[in-house]
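Entry 14. Structure prediction run on the chain below.
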Amino acid sequence: MALYAISDLHLALNTDKPMDIFGQHWYMHHEKVRNNWMKKVKKEDTVLIGGDISWSMKIDEGMEDLNWIHQLPGRKIIIKGNHDYWWTSITKLNNLYEDMHFIQNNFFTYKDWAVCGSRGWICPGGDRFGEKDEKIYAREQIRLRLSLDAAKAEGYKNIIVMIHYPPTNEKFEDSAFTEIFKEYGVKKVIYGHLHGPSLVRVLKGFRDGIEYIMTSCDYIDFDPVLILD
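Output returned:
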């Protein structure tokens, strides 16, 4: 039994959104993901998927992409990304599949670990943070706390957080998210969102005793990375 992670699948099986416009390495990238996944992930394993699952705008359109993930081996735990407009009510999503779990104000488990999460948002002090971002930034802190509080209420001490956006700005300054991680004793943070030229600004390794792991598809060569075994 092992725990893997990958994010930013950007599936478009039912949508005209070819990813190779962002570079030849994205050509048929879903097949790269599938081939790599099949080589290492077993039925008893769990895969964390850190947002930006599908380009579909509605859940009916996105079902082909979700079914594609469902057919891959392993249990999947998923958070929302900024492009996941298909995301519907959390109750409906968590009733779709037995092997796919969706986080929103809740948490799931892997062995003695709690997996919490939220989408996150652009952090203050960054190049693009503006007045309109303040409300979303504050709301995502609430959602993250609700997820963590749920895990803490059940007595979990080993905590992994999935957050779609990087938890700092481009200058790697602390944010409300990194402060929450420290407050709750989070041990590992999985994130994505960054692509292309932005991949030169990656927070990775240990900081304040927390391990940060970047899992965008093009950063990890479309190959799920081992988190725990």
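The chain has a mean pLDDT of 95.
Filed with the rest of this week's runs.
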